[in-house]
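Annex B.
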Amino acid sequence: MDNVNKLTAISLAVAAALPMMASADVMITEYVEGSSNNKAIELYNSGDTAIDLTGYKLVRYKDGATDALDMQVLDGQSIAPKATKVILNSSGAITLPQGVDSFSGALSFNGGDAVALVKDGAVVDIIGDVPTPTGWGLDVTLQRKLDSLVANTVFNPAQWEQLPKDTFTGLGSLEGAAEPETPVFSCSGAKIVPIYQVQGAGESSPYVPAGAFESETEVTVRGVVTARGESLFKGFYLQEVKGDNSPYTSDGVFVFLGENPPEAIQPGVEVCVQGKVKEYFGLTQIDIKTDKKFEVGTKGEVPAAAPFYVADGETLAQALERYEGMNVKLDAGSDLKISRTFSYDYAGRRNNMLVSYKAPLMKPTQLYPALSPEATALVKSNLENQLFIESDYKPADGVIPYFPDFNVETGYIRVGDQLTNLEGVIGYSYGAYRLVATNTITAGDFIRGDDRTDAPSVATKGDIRVASFNVLNFFNDVVGGDTNPSGSNRGALTEEEMLLQRAKIVSAITAMNADIVGLMEIANNGFGEKSAIKNLVDALNEKQTAENAYSFVEITDEDKYDGKYFGSDAITVGMLYRAGKVSLAGAARTIDTPEQHASAGSVTRTKDGKTETNPGNDAYQRHSLAQTFKIHDENLTVVVNHLKSKGSGCLEDWVNFEESVDPADQQGKCNAFRVSAAKVLGEALKDVKGDLLVIGDMNAYGMEDPIRVLTDYDASKSDRDIMTASWTTLNGKVFERQGSKIEKGYGLVNLNTKAHGAGTYSYSYNGELGNLDHALANTSLAKRLVDIEDWHINSVESNLFEYGKKFSGALAKSENAFSASDHDPVIVALSYPAPVEPPKPEPKPKDDGGALGYLGLALLSLFGLQRRRR
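Endonuclease exonuclease phosphatase: predicted structure tokens.
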């Protein structure tokens, strides 16, 4: 007996032993075993009435087994007369025509399993023999022939039409069954166009006419697959094995499928495709989505990744265009530095990383005045100096797919590190070039530019140190802290998060060794036992010696809002000091900042001949805190500030039609409102006696208007006016109905600029570095400057290491100082030497001569004579 007859006999014997139903109207009419999870079963009701499928289920006989395993129970489902129902694998990628009756379920069969439809334990219909030959139904679609619509408890291959893998046409419609097979595409006889010729040496393909987005005719290209795209880019990357050896043309191209590539298309496989050349939002690609014209060849080696480099005289963007679609490797010669660590990209709506050529990107208005030619040029230069580092699939929270050793202690990434040994393919989307990583790297592949330090170098310099520290919404609500005026909690959501946040802040402040610390973004819940500032100071002092213990500055009862708070916002500023090093000189002083109130309809704007009135506007700023300290009979006044944020809009943004976009001057929203605050601060502090230090998060970069107003601005030397905001009030009274022009700055000295130049930073936003946190001094204090340091523990670190767990998954955290906040602390070392006591005069030695000398000698002689007489 041959093998076929043996198998048939066994199958009949097993079938005879199975519980059976004599006849049935419900049957299997299609079986799909495709790529990955592309699995489907189509059922058909040949009867004239609807059938309730309660009691029915799909089972499988796994890998030759004779006992069935349940897959999908069909209770609760029904099937209409002369109609179909399709059951899909819930993780598959099969799209059905509109109107098909279907649902997703737990289909887990493979090419070695028979699948049966069972009713109340009895087999109704079956596809595949039992026991099942290995691989009998692997990578195929089987459709029941229209002349064989009868359920069978024994599989009869003659009733079925076999179609190629991933054939989904006809699912849900018997009319589509056994349709004529589409001829398989072949490149035989086609003219093969080299990929580098398709790419050309320009920004777009020479095959795409000027002003158009696709070629007039199709081209045929052949290459080796370097990577599959299944999420970020749907298709695959082809590359010439030899290329043309020209540095000006790319040897790779992206082939757009619009879906996951078939399993046969893998790295190293030769593939020939035919389609139109398209320029899709800046990406040159071959589009084969509609006709799927491709031919899979043999498998070989993946072309070696080409070392990426930027040539002299070209931008990073120009260099990336030369490699578009290619498999590249970043090495030491690539000179690409981290400009934003792995975090959320709002344009791409996914976590990724940003690198730039030679150095991280600087915020233009940190270095140059807004709208100056230099600032405008740097805006353009920064846009041309960006490469996003991606994974194809969106990564899980807390995971970097191409850096599996990512961790808080040893596997960290910092802005300024140089990235090496990462390989990937170059694509373009969301207006930027993207490298989709194809390998993994280790911590050793990051060349540290400015590595972590356990403490700032300035921590032991000077006689005293003053620090500014934004503590990223330190709230103690979750441990029973008092409420703030808004009743909201912007900080830790659990006690675990809050304790971690506090530990990190304590680690940072302890290492700073500052004698006065200005705080921003601390909960505004008073100064009592359950206040956030008391909670922080108590924890901080557990790590200090008695001499270095901290106290906090409390405002007077007259200055408290509602008898308790410092202003009415949820967060406020605060100040800590070491009473063993400095002493308070008088009460704290609050400096109220302007508000902006413009009722609806009070302001108009006009564009394209259309006039609109404003919808109403109310904007507020946090008040500033001033305290004078006595140091060796010298007065030092420290003022802590936190000006209006750049995110929420003010009236001027609406007037300029910028309420929904970033303002064109690159200074963020509410710039004029911050200028108003700077004016109020300048006026309030211009008569301060002694030394003055203005610190805090000013929400303005180094050369933006508010900082220029407080320092050295001179309208007569400026090409652009600086204006305050309109419709402002101060202490409940009208401050400025119309914005006014600033003529002269208030003369404070930017200590960071004085010591290090303009290129300093304490904050990173959207891949650009700059200083939002400042230390501004009057001239007498500027003379006392020993050193100033932005301690880079936060701006250059990953925010996944911060206290919040919402977006970091199972990533382990640490109580170290790194990522204690999103702003770096700024520490200023100052010279306040102790007064030198004048030396006390030494007593003069006695003179042996003179009257007293002779008298002494006479007495001694007399004394000696008397002793002799005794």
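The CA atoms of residues 398 and 811 lie 5 Å apart. The first strand starts at residue 26 and ends at 33. Further annotation is deferred to the next reporting cycle.
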